[in-house]
Design a protein that fits this description.
Length: about 280
């Protein structure tokens, strides 16, 4: 009787090493594709949320600012109401503005001369109207109570606030957007001898002469918006240095490179504002 010799076969050490190397190569390739895809998705999400944010803000601003001067009597809105040293009569289209930090929080009535910010600060924009939809989420019946001032201001937290005033008293303050790095506002003045309701020049508030406020035909608003918390840029998409952005002719330097910062602007035609008085009127 003969014994049968059984032979056993298996993987050699070399073949195992080769298979392991190939597996690691494939896994690392798949992991890189996954990480790159995730980073691209997160970067696109940050870009999209920033774009959506400034589009929403522009719509909110347009809805209120386009009403400027509606229902305001010409007798209350003459160039004499804007002359240097003239106290705000409480009825003119463009309220006097003075940025007082307490007023942003507590709603202390603003007064003083038309105000324009330093380059590193945000503008404040405010208009009045007497008829139309109420601003800042108020019930439209509020308009029956008198002339409303609507004021948009960016606070220290980067929130853009819509504030409504009635007879100089704050009646509503509502944040409408966050992560607003800066807002800049310019006023379009029709300087033609024969006005055509088209702006020839855009000026900051303090550069508009008192007699020219009734020649303002449009408002141009520029924003720098950040993607904000939850939408940080992945490391591969972060710029080496913070971005330098143009904001309606002014230079804005992003405070960091962790988020997307976008600059955008829109022009709002003041179609409800009467333009009886021009720069040559002396009333």
């Amino acid at each position: 009787m003969h014994a049968t010799k059984l032979s056993q076969t298996g993987f050699s050490l070399l073949s195992l090493l080769i298979a392991t190397a190939i597996s690691l190569f494939l896994v690392s390739g798949i992991a890189k594709i996954y990480i790159d895809s995730k980073n691209a998705f997160n970067a696109n999400a940050a870009n999209s949320v920033t774009t959506d944010k400034y589009r929403f803000v522009f719509e909110e601003l347009r809805r209120a600012l386009i009403m400027a001067g509606r229902g305001i009597a010409t007798s209350a809105d003459s160039p004499s109401a804007y002359r240097d040293g003239q106290q705000d009569n409480g009825s003119r289209t463009f309220p006097a503005l003075e940025l007082v930090q307490d007023s942003i929080v507590s709603g202390t009535p603003h007064s003083g001369a038309i105000w324009s910010p330093a380059p590193e600060e945000s503008s404040v924009v405010s208009v009045r109207y007497a008829s139309g939809p109420a601003p800042c989420g108020l019930d439209d019946d509020t308009m029956d109570d008198g002339i409303i001032s609507v004021r948009f201001v960016v606070d220290d937290e980067g929130d853009l606030n819509c504030q409504a005033y009635l007879d100089g008293n704050l009646i509503q303050s509502q944040p409408i957007a966050s992560d607003i790095a800066q807002m800049r506002v310019l006023y379009g003045v029709d300087t033609d001898i024969e006005p055509d309701s088209s702006a020839n020049i855009y000026l900051t508030a303090d550069a508009v002469d008192a007699q020219n406020w009734m020649s303002v035909v449009s408002i141009r608003v520029g924003l720098v918006v950040a993607s904000g918390a939850g939408y940080e840029l992945p490391w591969p998409y972060r710029p080496q240095t913070p971005d330098q952005l143009d904001l309606l002719g002014a230079r804005f330097t992003a405070p960091d490179n962790n988020y997307i910062y976008k600059s955008a602007s829109t022009t709002i035609s003041l179609r409800n504002l009467h333009h009886m008085y021009r720069q040559f009127a002396d009333i």
